[in-house]
Amino acid sequence: MNNWVILKLGIIFIIIISFFWLFVFGPFYDSIIIQLAVFALVMGWNVLRFSLREAISLLKFCLPFVLSLLVFGLIFHFMQLFGRTDWLEDTLIKCFIFPSSLVFLKILLTYISYLDILNLPISMEKRIGLITMKSAFQKGEKILSRFSWYLNTYSDLQSSNRIKSQLQKYACLIIALYLYLYEEIENSNRLLKNRYLHLYEVNE
Amino acid sequence: MEIHKGKYRLENRNLNFDIVDDLNFDSNRGCLYLRGDNGFGKTSFLEKIIIPALKTANLSYLYIGQDIRTQLYTLRALLSIRGFKVSDTDEVELLRLWIHHSQSARVLILDEFDKYFPDYGFIFDWSDAFIRNYIIVTHLGMNRSGAVAKQHGICNTRFELISIDGRLKNIRVRNE
What we know:
The complex is a heterodimer.
Chain A: H1 2-24, H2 32-49, H3 52-79, H4 87-110, H5 114-118, H6 124-153, H7 162-203
Helix pairs in contact in A: 1-4, 2-3, 2-4, 3-4, 6-7
Chain B: E1 2-3, E2 6-10, E3 15-19, E4 23-24, E5 30-35, H1 42-56, E6 61-64, H2 68-81, H3 91-100, E7 107-111, H4 121-127, E8 133-137, H5 145-148, E9 153-165, E10 168-175
Parallel strand pairs in B: 3-10, 5-8, 5-9, 6-7, 7-8
Antiparallel strand pairs in B: 1-4, 2-3, 9-10
Helix pairs in contact in B: 2-3
């Protein structure tokens, strides 16, 4: 069982490293056509693995980051910063790479189950740490849309300046998510440790 | 603002509302209690019908949701970017700060707030000066009339299950 888990996790990590080596830092980085194809494939995979709704909400989450990247790219392009004339093309590539790599990483990591972590030949302390991280990030992902919903109800965040209110909303979203993950990780970790210690004592 | 009587369908929540009476949020001060068993769509009614109607009417409102523990993270974040030091602030104080700094609101919506704070008269004390209408989802039999009755007319609206077509629930919404 242990060997099978190590093999499975090894394959997952090799795939992740290969993806980043090929498309993010390596030979296919420059090709906008390939980046577009990778983006389409990864999004399609995400729809099949989860749902269309989930894929759309993920894209919505990425949108402000992609848009700000695009705005800076356009500014740099028209300024011809550092004498470069390829800012626009480079920015477009990054606009595809960012969501592709995020979604790809997310999909691959969902193939690692709690049972896999439990079967890893590492100390219980480390297993609890990994389980806590996995659980917190899964919850964090689900809670994002609810946070976003609440933030949309706050009149404080609705101003005549749409860009300003959107930026404030995203700042709140990130802070809320950080606070949530911080507390969630701490609580889950304490809970798991207590349960493990209790079971250990009972079995002793 | 008024929500007219008629049929309202929430496809993705499998709910079909038949609103028997117009729901009025006009200038008269009022406290509307939404009552009914679990699963009859009170929260969906708030989030999918009342809140969008308030937004369309450009009527400023405050909404405290049923999952208040989740909402508090967003309130903490909101108050932080407004410059308040809220790192050690408890949940009641967070709510007080938020309500105190939202005096442009005219409608306050509470969804099962009494589940967390059975005695929630403090909410009325904080908001009575500027809130015109309260909308409250509750499972408790009695109204918090002591705190609001003097200035607010109370209306009880009941959610009743009429029938179930497959997964679709037909709910009647009527004033008592």
